[in-house]
């Protein structure tokens, strides 16, 4: 276990098992719809890579980078588009892939944007959900795991850009972000 991690909350095996299940369900949901699967960078990149390998129907992918946290542990409430999509979403069934929903601000902003651009439908799959953090009313269509109110990192989730590469979800030692 990485030295800055206090406790492993969700193991690599549990995560991979859940992604297989999500892939099966989404393969049924999106059969014959050729969805545009959108990865919300940076946090969702590892989930995206593992998830699409488990979706067995034709799809296209695109990537968008947004950020609301910066180097802080709290959402700033301001969602910045760092990199926009390359493709148009007009008339498309869009599947938004997120690593985590906390306040819900990032996704509510993104859904509104994609709907305004003429997406035919927007579906959200998130691997993690932290309902205790919500400041807007937003639920994912598909959720992997519900997390407690702790500062977690790993599997794409960062603290000041670190720990994204951990294959599990861990609780960060408080002295790391309070010092
Ligand atoms: C994190 C996470 C989600 C968002 C969730 O991204 O990856 O995208 O925050 O929080 P919210 O529901 O309160 O909006 P972040 O802004 O840290 O950027 P990153 O993905 O590049 O780490
Ligand atoms: Mn993110
Ligand atoms: Mg982040």
TrEMBL record:
Q: Which organism is it from?
A: Paenibacillus gallinarum
UniProt protein name: Hypoxanthine phosphoribosyltransferase
State which pathway it belongs to. Answer: Purine metabolism; IMP biosynthesis via salvage pathway; IMP from hypoxanthine: step 1/1; Purine metabolism; GMP biosynthesis via salvage pathway; GMP from guanine: step 1/1
Any idea where this protein resides? Cytoplasm
Which lineage is the organism of this entry classified under, starting from the top rank?
Bacteria, Bacillati, Bacillota, Bacilli, Bacillales
Which EC numbers characterise this protein's activity in its record?
2.4.2.8
Please name the SUPFAM superfamilies in this protein's record.
PRTase-like
Against PANTHER family, the record matches this protein to: HYPOXANTHINE PHOSPHORIBOSYLTRANSFERASE, HYPOXANTHINE-GUANINE PHOSPHORIBOSYLTRANSFERASE
Catalyses: GMP + diphosphate = guanine + 5-phospho-alpha-D-ribose 1-diphosphate; IMP + diphosphate = hypoxanthine + 5-phospho-alpha-D-ribose 1-diphosphate
A Pfam family recorded for this sequence: Pribosyltran
What does this gene product do?
Purine salvage pathway enzyme that catalyzes the transfer of the ribosyl-5-phosphate group from 5-phospho-alpha-D-ribose 1-diphosphate (PRPP) to the N9 position of the 6-oxopurines hypoxanthine and guanine to form the corresponding ribonucleotides IMP (inosine 5'-monophosphate) and GMP (guanosine 5'-monophosphate), with the release of PPi.
Manganese keyword on record = no
**Its principal location?**
cytoplasm
Q: Which residues form the signal peptide?
A: none
**Keywords per UniProt:** Cytoplasm, Glycosyltransferase, Magnesium, Metal-binding, Nucleotide-binding, Purine salvage, Transferase
Q: Start and end of every Phosphoribosyltransferase domain? A: 18-159
